[in-house]
Design goal:
Structural class: alpha/beta
Distance between the termini: 48 Å
Number of strands: 7
Radius of gyration: 17 Å
Oligomer: single chain
Strand content: 15-25%
Largest sheet: 7 strands, mixed
Number of helices: 8
Order of helices and strands: HHHEHEHEHEHEHEE
């Protein structure tokens, strides 16, 4: 049996028992596929991990950078209390339309706001609103801008907040110090920012599964 088949089988086993998709999540995936969104959403067990991290964090306010079809948004929003708030930033109006439909179907639209436009344009406007600090930030957008997203996450959080950066392994290319590829350069810069910034304490984990070989970085904002 190939490694990828083994990864798929193990993920299927874990997902079936610990993080099965329900009607709203399944519909979100179907709607995303029907509208030809790229198949880059988090896996079900990864979505459940995001939800658990938000619950452990006691998150009331969540910022997501990169909405896609709203699948991860649904997982995260389900961790919020009734007075919680999730703001998700999506570059593509077409993707945002699909996401808003999926979020509404899941009954979470009272808690979620999707803002359309380039995140590096939306984030300064968000900061100008002087919002209550976010308890958790999930970064899953264009990888070249990862260090900028981490810097903005720092501005919009507080001591004790959690920052998650997805897809940091880049198929192993993140270890290539000579790479000139924008996604690798951006990811390496984000990792090095987490490593050196006095207000961040973090780590990164490699993963395998239905999404292949990948991983994520996890950083806590410290005093």
């Amino acid at each position: 049996m190939s490694s990828s088949q083994t990864w798929d089988d193990v993920d299927t086993y874990f997902t079936t028992h610990l993080s099965p998709d329900d009607a709203a999540l399944e519909a979100a995936l179907r709607d995303s596929e029907a509208n030809e969104l790229p198949h880059i959403n988090v896996a079900a067990n990864q979505g459940k991990l995001l939800q658990l991290l938000a619950l452990v964090q006691g998150a009331r306010r969540i910022l997501e950078i990169g909405t896609l079809g709203g699948y991860s948004t649904i997982w995260l929003a389900r961790a919020l209390p009734a007075d919680g708030r999730l703001i998700s930033l999506e570059y593509s109006p077409e993707y945002a339309e699909v996401a808003c439909r999926n979020i509404a179907r899941a009954g979470l639209d009272p808690l979620v706001e999707v803002r359309v436009g380039a995140a590096l344009d939306s984030l300064p406007r968000l900061a100008d609103e002087n919002p209550e600090p976010f308890d958790l930030v999930f970064i899953d957008a264009d990888k070249a801008n990862n260090p900028h997203y981490v810097e903005w996450a720092l501005r919009l959080t507080r001591a004790g907040s959690l920052i998650i950066v997805d897809n940091v392994v880049r198929g192993g290319r993140v270890a290539d110090a000579d790479s000139t590829e924008p996604d690798v350069l951006g990811t390496r810069a984000a990792i090095e920012l987490i490593a050196t910034h006095p207000k961040l304490d973090g780590t990164a984990i490699q993963t395998v599964g239905t999404k292949g070989y990948d991983g994520f970085a996890l950083a806590r904002v410290v005093d």
